[in-house]
Amino acid sequence: MLKLRSPVRDIPGTMSDLGCISFVSLFIPLCFVFQLCVVLPEFHEPGSLMFILTWIGGLFVVFQIAGNFLACMLVDTSIRATILTPPQEPQLRKLWRFCSLCETLAPIRSWHCDSCKTCVLKRDHHCIFTGNCVGYRNQRYFILFLVYVIIGCSYCCLYNCVYFWYLHKDIYLNSRTLMSLICPFVGFFFDISWKNVYLLTYELGFISLLYALILFLFHWPNVLRGSTTHESLSAKYDMGREQNLEMVFGKRWRLVWLSPLLESELPHDGVHWESLLRQSSKNR
Ligand SMILES: [Zn+2]
Ligand SMILES: [Zn+2]
User: Fold this and answer.
1) Ligand 2 centre from 47 Cα, in Å?
2) Which of 72, 116, 127, 153 is catalytic?
3) Phi, psi (5° rounding) for residue 77?
4) Ligand 2 centroid to residue 127 C-alpha, Å
5) Is this model's pTM higher than 0.85 or not?
6) Which residue ranges does the record assign to the Palmitoyltransferase DHHC domain (predicted)?
7) Among this protein's residues, is 127 annotated catalytic?
Protein backbone atom coordinates (compact mmCIF):
# COMPACT_ATOMS: atom_id res chain seq x y z
CA MET A 1 0.00 0.00 0.00
CA LEU A 2 1.43 3.38 -1.03
CA LYS A 3 1.83 6.00 1.69
CA LEU A 4 0.78 9.54 0.84
CA ARG A 5 2.36 12.84 1.84
CA SER A 6 0.40 15.27 3.93
CA PRO A 7 -0.79 18.14 1.68
CA VAL A 8 -0.57 20.53 4.65
CA ARG A 9 2.81 19.52 6.07
CA ASP A 10 4.76 18.56 2.94
CA ILE A 11 3.36 20.42 -0.10
CA PRO A 12 4.70 22.67 -1.45
CA GLY A 13 8.27 22.64 -0.15
CA THR A 14 9.35 26.01 -1.59
CA MET A 15 7.86 29.12 -3.22
CA SER A 16 9.09 28.06 -6.68
CA ASP A 17 7.31 24.72 -6.15
CA LEU A 18 4.13 26.60 -5.26
CA GLY A 19 4.40 28.77 -8.41
CA CYS A 20 4.94 25.76 -10.69
CA ILE A 21 2.18 23.66 -9.07
CA SER A 22 -0.25 26.61 -9.48
CA PHE A 23 0.77 27.01 -13.12
CA VAL A 24 0.11 23.32 -13.95
CA SER A 25 -3.16 23.32 -11.96
CA LEU A 26 -4.44 26.31 -13.95
CA PHE A 27 -3.03 25.36 -17.32
CA ILE A 28 -4.53 21.83 -17.50
CA PRO A 29 -8.21 22.93 -17.18
CA LEU A 30 -7.66 26.09 -19.29
CA CYS A 31 -6.15 24.08 -22.13
CA PHE A 32 -8.84 21.38 -21.86
CA VAL A 33 -11.75 23.86 -22.03
CA PHE A 34 -10.20 25.87 -24.88
CA GLN A 35 -9.45 22.77 -26.92
CA LEU A 36 -12.77 20.98 -26.57
CA CYS A 37 -15.19 23.90 -26.27
CA VAL A 38 -13.63 26.51 -28.60
CA VAL A 39 -11.42 24.71 -31.15
CA LEU A 40 -13.11 21.33 -31.57
CA PRO A 41 -16.59 22.64 -32.71
CA GLU A 42 -14.82 24.40 -35.60
CA PHE A 43 -13.53 21.06 -36.87
CA HIS A 44 -16.36 18.65 -36.16
CA GLU A 45 -20.09 19.19 -35.94
CA PRO A 46 -21.24 18.97 -32.27
CA GLY A 47 -22.96 15.63 -31.78
CA SER A 48 -21.15 13.96 -34.72
CA LEU A 49 -19.21 10.73 -34.19
CA MET A 50 -15.80 12.45 -34.49
CA PHE A 51 -16.90 15.14 -32.03
CA ILE A 52 -17.95 12.53 -29.44
CA LEU A 53 -14.86 10.37 -29.98
CA THR A 54 -12.57 13.39 -29.58
CA TRP A 55 -14.35 14.34 -26.36
CA ILE A 56 -13.88 10.80 -24.99
CA GLY A 57 -10.19 10.85 -26.04
CA GLY A 58 -9.75 14.29 -24.46
CA LEU A 59 -11.32 13.17 -21.18
CA PHE A 60 -9.07 10.09 -21.11
CA VAL A 61 -5.90 12.14 -21.70
CA VAL A 62 -6.79 14.85 -19.18
CA PHE A 63 -7.66 12.17 -16.59
CA GLN A 64 -4.24 10.60 -17.15
CA ILE A 65 -2.41 13.93 -16.94
CA ALA A 66 -4.24 15.09 -13.79
CA GLY A 67 -4.14 11.65 -12.13
CA ASN A 68 -0.44 11.04 -12.71
CA PHE A 69 0.35 14.62 -11.72
CA LEU A 70 -1.50 14.22 -8.39
CA ALA A 71 -0.02 10.78 -7.73
CA CYS A 72 3.50 12.02 -8.44
CA MET A 73 2.88 14.90 -6.02
CA LEU A 74 1.26 12.89 -3.22
CA VAL A 75 3.02 9.51 -3.14
CA ASP A 76 5.64 9.53 -0.41
CA THR A 77 8.88 8.08 -1.73
CA SER A 78 11.02 9.29 1.16
CA ILE A 79 12.68 7.24 3.90
CA ARG A 80 9.98 8.57 6.27
CA ALA A 81 7.48 6.18 4.70
CA THR A 82 9.71 3.16 5.35
CA ILE A 83 11.13 1.23 8.29
CA LEU A 84 14.87 1.22 7.64
CA THR A 85 16.81 -1.88 8.58
CA PRO A 86 20.49 -1.52 7.67
CA PRO A 87 22.18 -4.77 6.63
CA GLN A 88 23.90 -6.77 9.39
CA GLU A 89 27.02 -7.63 7.37
CA PRO A 90 29.61 -4.90 8.09
CA GLN A 91 30.75 -4.93 4.45
CA LEU A 92 27.25 -4.16 3.19
CA ARG A 93 26.46 -1.79 6.05
CA LYS A 94 29.46 0.28 4.96
CA LEU A 95 27.61 1.08 1.72
CA TRP A 96 24.95 3.00 3.65
CA ARG A 97 25.70 6.61 4.58
CA PHE A 98 24.84 8.67 7.62
CA CYS A 99 22.59 11.66 6.82
CA SER A 100 23.27 14.30 9.45
CA LEU A 101 20.10 16.21 8.50
CA CYS A 102 17.78 13.20 8.89
CA GLU A 103 20.03 11.85 11.68
CA THR A 104 19.85 8.32 10.39
CA LEU A 105 21.68 5.77 8.30
CA ALA A 106 20.29 6.10 4.78
CA PRO A 107 20.25 3.32 2.15
CA ILE A 108 22.31 3.34 -0.99
CA ARG A 109 20.68 5.12 -3.96
CA SER A 110 18.91 7.49 -1.54
CA TRP A 111 19.87 11.17 -1.47
CA HIS A 112 18.86 14.02 0.76
CA CYS A 113 16.62 16.69 -0.81
CA ASP A 114 16.76 20.19 0.68
CA SER A 115 13.32 21.09 -0.69
CA CYS A 116 11.59 17.95 0.64
CA LYS A 117 13.77 18.06 3.78
CA THR A 118 14.27 14.30 3.82
CA CYS A 119 16.25 11.53 2.17
CA VAL A 120 14.45 10.03 -0.81
CA LEU A 121 14.58 6.36 -1.84
CA LYS A 122 16.28 5.79 -5.22
CA ARG A 123 16.16 9.53 -5.71
CA ASP A 124 16.11 10.71 -9.30
CA HIS A 125 15.53 14.47 -9.01
CA HIS A 126 13.31 17.08 -7.36
CA CYS A 127 10.40 17.95 -9.66
CA ILE A 128 9.31 21.57 -9.13
CA PHE A 129 6.06 21.03 -11.06
CA THR A 130 4.79 18.50 -8.51
CA GLY A 131 6.71 19.87 -5.52
CA ASN A 132 8.01 16.38 -4.79
CA CYS A 133 11.12 14.34 -5.41
CA VAL A 134 10.86 11.71 -8.09
CA GLY A 135 12.08 8.49 -6.53
CA TYR A 136 11.42 4.79 -6.23
CA ARG A 137 7.68 4.86 -5.51
CA ASN A 138 6.48 7.66 -7.80
CA GLN A 139 8.69 7.47 -10.89
CA ARG A 140 5.95 5.56 -12.71
CA TYR A 141 3.58 8.52 -12.35
CA PHE A 142 6.21 11.05 -13.38
CA ILE A 143 7.06 9.21 -16.61
CA LEU A 144 3.41 8.65 -17.51
CA PHE A 145 2.61 12.28 -16.73
CA LEU A 146 5.25 13.27 -19.31
CA VAL A 147 3.94 10.76 -21.86
CA TYR A 148 0.37 12.05 -21.63
CA VAL A 149 1.46 15.70 -21.66
CA ILE A 150 3.32 14.94 -24.91
CA ILE A 151 0.24 13.21 -26.40
CA GLY A 152 -2.18 15.93 -25.26
CA CYS A 153 0.00 18.87 -26.29
CA SER A 154 0.82 17.31 -29.69
CA TYR A 155 -2.91 17.10 -30.41
CA CYS A 156 -3.45 20.69 -29.20
CA CYS A 157 -0.55 22.12 -31.23
CA LEU A 158 -1.69 20.42 -34.42
CA TYR A 159 -5.32 21.54 -34.17
CA ASN A 160 -4.39 25.00 -32.90
CA CYS A 161 -2.10 25.70 -35.86
CA VAL A 162 -5.00 25.06 -38.25
CA TYR A 163 -7.40 27.02 -36.01
CA PHE A 164 -5.23 30.13 -35.74
CA TRP A 165 -3.39 30.32 -39.06
CA TYR A 166 -5.95 28.83 -41.45
CA LEU A 167 -9.49 29.02 -40.07
CA HIS A 168 -9.02 32.43 -38.40
CA LYS A 169 -6.14 33.96 -40.30
CA ASP A 170 -8.25 37.11 -40.79
CA ILE A 171 -8.10 37.68 -37.00
CA TYR A 172 -4.68 36.35 -36.05
CA LEU A 173 -2.34 36.83 -38.98
CA ASN A 174 -1.00 40.28 -38.10
CA SER A 175 1.81 42.06 -36.24
CA ARG A 176 -0.18 42.44 -32.99
CA THR A 177 -0.43 38.66 -32.76
CA LEU A 178 3.32 38.43 -33.14
CA MET A 179 3.73 40.90 -30.27
CA SER A 180 1.29 38.90 -28.09
CA LEU A 181 3.24 35.72 -28.80
CA ILE A 182 6.64 37.29 -28.03
CA CYS A 183 5.46 39.14 -24.90
CA PRO A 184 2.12 37.59 -23.88
CA PHE A 185 1.65 39.79 -20.80
CA VAL A 186 2.36 43.01 -22.72
CA GLY A 187 -0.44 41.96 -25.09
CA PHE A 188 -2.81 41.77 -22.08
CA PHE A 189 -1.70 45.25 -21.01
CA PHE A 190 -3.08 46.74 -24.22
CA ASP A 191 -5.96 44.42 -24.87
CA ILE A 192 -7.67 42.19 -22.29
CA SER A 193 -9.58 39.90 -24.62
CA TRP A 194 -10.33 36.23 -25.25
CA LYS A 195 -8.11 36.51 -28.34
CA ASN A 196 -5.08 37.03 -26.12
CA VAL A 197 -6.14 34.27 -23.71
CA TYR A 198 -6.36 31.88 -26.67
CA LEU A 199 -2.94 32.96 -27.94
CA LEU A 200 -1.43 32.42 -24.49
CA THR A 201 -2.94 28.91 -24.35
CA TYR A 202 -1.56 28.20 -27.82
CA GLU A 203 1.91 29.34 -26.82
CA LEU A 204 1.93 27.48 -23.49
CA GLY A 205 0.88 24.30 -25.32
CA PHE A 206 3.98 24.54 -27.52
CA ILE A 207 6.31 25.28 -24.61
CA SER A 208 4.85 22.41 -22.55
CA LEU A 209 5.24 20.00 -25.46
CA LEU A 210 8.85 20.95 -26.00
CA TYR A 211 9.70 20.81 -22.30
CA ALA A 212 7.98 17.47 -21.69
CA LEU A 213 9.67 16.01 -24.77
CA ILE A 214 13.13 17.09 -23.62
CA LEU A 215 12.49 15.68 -20.12
CA PHE A 216 11.17 12.41 -21.51
CA LEU A 217 14.13 11.96 -23.89
CA PHE A 218 16.47 12.59 -20.97
CA HIS A 219 14.79 10.25 -18.46
CA TRP A 220 13.65 7.36 -20.67
CA PRO A 221 17.16 5.94 -21.40
CA ASN A 222 17.76 5.87 -17.62
CA VAL A 223 14.53 3.93 -17.09
CA LEU A 224 15.60 1.35 -19.69
CA ARG A 225 19.06 1.14 -18.12
CA GLY A 226 17.72 0.76 -14.58
CA SER A 227 19.56 3.86 -13.39
CA THR A 228 18.74 7.28 -11.99
CA THR A 229 19.92 10.78 -12.96
CA HIS A 230 22.71 10.47 -10.35
CA GLU A 231 23.85 7.16 -11.87
CA SER A 232 23.17 7.81 -15.53
CA LEU A 233 26.70 6.92 -16.60
CA SER A 234 26.72 3.59 -14.79
CA ALA A 235 24.94 0.30 -15.41
CA LYS A 236 25.35 -0.96 -11.82
CA TYR A 237 21.65 -1.73 -11.39
CA ASP A 238 20.90 -2.84 -14.94
CA MET A 239 18.88 -6.06 -14.64
CA GLY A 240 17.80 -6.29 -18.26
CA ARG A 241 15.12 -4.27 -20.01
CA GLU A 242 12.02 -6.11 -18.76
CA GLN A 243 13.08 -6.12 -15.12
CA ASN A 244 14.16 -2.49 -15.31
CA LEU A 245 10.69 -1.54 -16.56
CA GLU A 246 9.14 -3.61 -13.77
CA MET A 247 11.30 -1.76 -11.23
CA VAL A 248 9.75 1.57 -12.32
CA PHE A 249 6.22 0.65 -13.41
CA GLY A 250 5.60 -2.36 -11.17
CA LYS A 251 4.65 -5.96 -11.92
CA ARG A 252 1.76 -4.88 -14.18
CA TRP A 253 3.98 -2.59 -16.24
CA ARG A 254 2.24 -3.52 -19.48
CA LEU A 255 -1.08 -2.12 -18.17
CA VAL A 256 -0.16 0.94 -16.11
CA TRP A 257 -0.71 3.32 -19.03
CA LEU A 258 -4.45 2.59 -18.68
CA SER A 259 -4.93 4.38 -15.38
CA PRO A 260 -2.98 5.97 -12.53
CA LEU A 261 -5.45 4.18 -10.22
CA LEU A 262 -4.36 0.74 -11.44
CA GLU A 263 -2.35 -1.00 -8.71
CA SER A 264 1.00 -2.33 -9.84
CA GLU A 265 3.11 -3.69 -7.01
CA LEU A 266 6.78 -2.78 -7.13
CA PRO A 267 9.11 -5.80 -7.03
CA HIS A 268 11.61 -4.28 -4.56
CA ASP A 269 11.43 -2.52 -1.19
CA GLY A 270 13.42 0.46 -2.52
CA VAL A 271 15.86 0.12 0.40
CA HIS A 272 18.11 -2.94 0.12
CA TRP A 273 19.84 -2.48 -3.20
CA GLU A 274 22.96 -4.36 -2.03
CA SER A 275 21.54 -7.70 -3.17
CA LEU A 276 20.73 -6.25 -6.58
CA LEU A 277 24.26 -4.93 -6.92
CA ARG A 278 25.60 -8.48 -6.51
CA GLN A 279 23.00 -9.89 -8.90
CA SER A 280 23.60 -7.35 -11.66
CA SER A 281 27.38 -7.82 -11.46
CA LYS A 282 26.81 -11.59 -11.86
CA ASN A 283 24.64 -10.92 -14.92
CA ARG A 284 27.37 -8.90 -16.58
ZN1 LIG B 1 18.54 13.06 4.77
ZN1 LIG C 1 12.64 16.92 -3.21
Assistant:
1) 46
2) 127
3) -110, 15
4) 7
5) yes
6) 97-234
7) yes
Phi, psi of 93 (to 5 degrees): -60, -30
Distance CA 211, CA 127 (A): 13
pLDDT, tens only, 21-77:
999 999 999 999 999 999 999 999 999 999 999 999 999 999 999 999 999 999 999
Helices 194-225 & 175-182 angle (0-180, nearest 10): 50
Averaged confidence pLDDT in the chain: 90
Torsion of CA 145, 29, 210, 173, to 10 degrees: 160
Pairing of strands 97-99, 118-120: unpaired
Query: Could you give the number of structural domains in the chain?
Result: 1
Range of the domain at 51: 15-80+126-283
In a domain, 4, yes or no: no
Inside any domain, residue 168? yes
Q: How far is the CA of 115 from the centre of ligand 2 (A)?
A: 5
Question: One-letter amino acid identity for 56?
Answer: I
Q: Which ligand is nearest to the CA of 116?
A: 2
